[in-house]
Amino acid sequence: MAMGRDCERSQDVEALGNQRSRREGGGPLAAAEPRASWLSRLEHAAFAPVTETSRWYYLWVAFLLLVIAWGVYAYSHQLREGLIVTGMRDRISWGLYITTFVFFIGISHAGTLISAILRVSQARWRTPITRMAEFITVVALVSGAIFVIIDLGRPDRVLNVIRYGRWQSPIIWDVLAITTYLTASIAYLFLPMIPDLALFRDRLAGRVAPWRIWLYDLLSVRWRGTGAQWRSMGTAITTAMILIIPIAVSVHTVVSWIFAMTLREPWNSTIFGAFFVAGAIFSGIATLIIVMAVLRKVYHLEEYITEKHFVYLGYMLAAFALIMIYGNVSEYVTTGYKLEEGAEFHFRQLFLEQFAGFYWFYFIGGLVVPGLLVLFPRTRNIWGVVAAALLVDVAMWVERYFIVVSGFRVPLMPYEPSSYAPTWVELSIMVAGFALFALLITLFVKVFPIIAVWEVAEDQESIETAPARRPLAPGATLDPAEGG
Amino acid sequence: MSSQIVVKVILVSIALGAAAVALAVPASASHVEAEITTEGPAALQVKLRSADQGLPIANAAVTLSADESFGGVAGRVELGQASTDQNGVATVRFHRLSAGDHQVRIEYVAPSETEPEVATAFVTMPGITSQVYRSSAGVHIPGLNVSLLIALVATVWAILLSVALRVIAIARAGADAGAPSPQPPRGRRADKSISRAGATGGR
User: Is the pLDDT of residue B161 over 50?
Assistant: First the structure.
C-alpha cells in the first residue's frame, strides 16, 4: 500500500515536472528524478519523529515527569502552608516565579515574531525552522502563564482579576494581551500546519495509532489541496502574520509596564517597553537555536537545518546583543548622570554590591561574549552559535531576576533594605516549569509535523524552477542553493 | 535700692504685659498677629494683621507646616504655601491631615520685612469618615480612555474571528471536493500546475 502511494507520488511529481516543462517551452526537467528522491527524504524526515520511538525517548519523558512530579509536590506544600514557605515577604514580594514568568513570555517571541518577520520579509531560508519557532511560542506562553498562578498565594482567586479588575490597571492589560497573543499564536501555528496534517492523515494511516489518524483528520479540516483551500489558507496566514507582530510587541511592552508603572526607582524608565521587547526577541532567538540544535541532533535533520540556519540566526543574535548593550548604556548613563537618591542605592547594589555578580555576568557573559562568538569567523559555526545561545538564555533569565528583585529592594521609606533568597519550594517549582516546557515540546514533536513540509517543498520547487523562468546568462550554471 | 526695685517691677510688668498680649491671640510674633481657621475639610485659612493697628497684611508669603508621624517616622511636613490677599487672608489647601487637634507652624514674610517670622497655632480638624482627597493624577486627553482600549481589543479579536472563518471556509471547500486522496508533499505552485493539467482530481 505504502509502495503504491509512493509510486503515485512519484507520478505526481513527474507530471508536475513535465507540465511545467511544457508550459515553459522546454523538455522534461532533468531534475525530476532527484526531486522525487528529495521529496521522499523530506517525507521520511517529517514522519520519523512520529513513527519511530527509541528507548531514550521514554527515559527522557520519564525523567521530565519525575522533575514535574517533584515540582507538583513542592507546590502542594506551598498551597498547604502558604507563601511563607517561599523567600518572598512584604518588602520583596516578587521572586523566582515572576522572573520565570517574564522569561517565558520573552522566549515566546521566538517563535511567532521571528517566524512572522521572516515570513513577511520572504526569507526563504526560514522554511525548515518556522514550525519549531511557532510551537516554542505556544509552549512558552502556556508554561509562563502557569507561573503567574503559582505566584498567587490563593490560586482560587485567579478569576478575581477579571471579576474585580479595573481597565486602568496594567495587570488587566497584561491578561488581555497574553490571552490574545496565545490565541493568535495557536492560530498562527495551526494554519500553516493544515496541509502537513492532511499529509500525515493520508500517509500515516495504518502506520500509527488510530487516535492519531483521527486527530490528523480532525485538525486537517478536510484539506484536499484545492485552489479554493489554498487561497483561503493563504489569506488566513497573511492576516495572522501581519496581526501577530503588533500583538507580540504589545505583550512584552505591557509586561514591562507592570514594572514601569509601579512607583519603584529602578523601574522608572521610559524605554522599558522597547528594552523588554528587544530582550524578548533576543532570548527567543537563543531558545530557537537551542531547540533547533537538539531536534536536529535527535531526529537527524542535518539535511534541512544546516549550519546556514545557525549562522543566520547567530547574526540576528549578535544584532540584538548590540541593541541590548546600547539599551543598557543609554539607560544607565542618563540615570547615573543625574543620580538621584534612590538611583544611587540601586546603582550600588547593581554594579558593586548584592547584584554585581548577576549584572556583570549578564552584561559580559550574555551580551558581549555571545556577540563575539558569532562575529569571530573561527567560532561562527554550529557549536559557537549554540554556545552563544546558551549564554544568552541564562543571562536573560538572570537579567529578569535582578530587574525584579533589585527593584523591590530599594527602600521606599527609611528602613533597612530587605533581602531575598529563594527556598527549595521556589527552586523546585521553577525547575519543574522548565521540565514542563521541555516535555510539551517533546510531546508536540512526537505528534505533529516538526518541519513545515509543504513550505520546504514549495521552497525547493521554486529554487528548481527559478532558472527556467529567467533565461540564464551565457556561461552561468545552475546553483541549487541559490536564493537560500 | 528702691530705684532697683522700681526697675525690676517695670521689667516684670513689661514681661507680663508681653506675655498677656501673646496669650491673647491665637498666634503672634513681633508686630503681626496670625489667626488660623479651617476652611472645609481640606484647607486652612490664615489671617495676618498688624498687631498695633489691626490692619490686614497683604501680599505676605505664608508657609504652613505641621509635625506629623507616619509608620514610625516623625518629621515636619509642609502643608502648603500661599500669599495673603488684600484682606490679609491666605488659604492653603493640603492633601493629608488626619482628624483631631494639630499644632500648625505658620511661617510668613511680611512685605516690608526680609526675614521670615514664625508663629504657631492649634487647629482642630473635624472628624472625617470619607476620603478627604481624591487623586487627580494623570492628564485627561479626550478620546484616550477605556472605550478606546475596548475598541482596540475588539478589533483585534474581530480580525482573529475572520481568520477562524477562513478555516471554516477551508473545511467547506474540502467537503465540496469530496473524499480525501493521498497527497504528496508539495506547495501551492505544484498544486496549481497539477490542477491546470488535470493530473489528479479533487486537489
Answer: yes
Spell A57-79 as b/e; 16+ CB within 10 A means b. eeeebeebeebbeebeebbeebe
A16: distance to nearest CA of chain B, Å? 6
**Which residue do the cell numbers 526537467 mark?**
A29
Residue A161 to residue A212: CA distance in whole angstroms: 38
Provide the H-helix boundaries in B101-183.
146-177
Mean pLDDT across A374-383: 94
Give the residue from A136, A177, A146, A173 showing the smallest Cα distance to A438: A136
Mapped to the 3 state alphabet, what secondary structure does A251-318 carry? Answer: HHHHHHHHHHCCCCHHHCCCCHHHHHHHHHHHHHHHHHHHHHHHHHHHCCCCCCCCHHHHHHHHHHHH
Give yes or no for residue A7 having a pLDDT over 60.
Answer: no
How close is the nearest chain A Cα to the Cα of B68, in Å?
A: 15
C-alpha cell read off for A145: 502563564
User: Whose CA is closest to A368, among A397, A393, A388?
Assistant: A388
Q: What is the largest CA-CA distance in chain B?
A: 140
- CA-based radius of gyration for chain B: 40
ipTM > 0.85? no
Interface subset of A 198-257, CB within 8 angstroms of B: 198-199, 201-203, 221-230, 232-236, 239-240, 243, 247
Name the helix (H) or strand (E) containing A434: helix A424-447
Whether A3 has a pLDDT exceeding 60, the answer reads no
Residues of B in contact with A165 (CB under 8 A): none
Interchain proximity B183–A42, CB inside 8 Å:
no
Indicate yes or no: CB of B182 within 8 angstroms of CB of A9.
yes
The pLDDT tens digits for A36-59 are: 778 888 888 889 899 888 999 999
Q: Cβ B190–A228 below 8 Å, yes or no? A: no
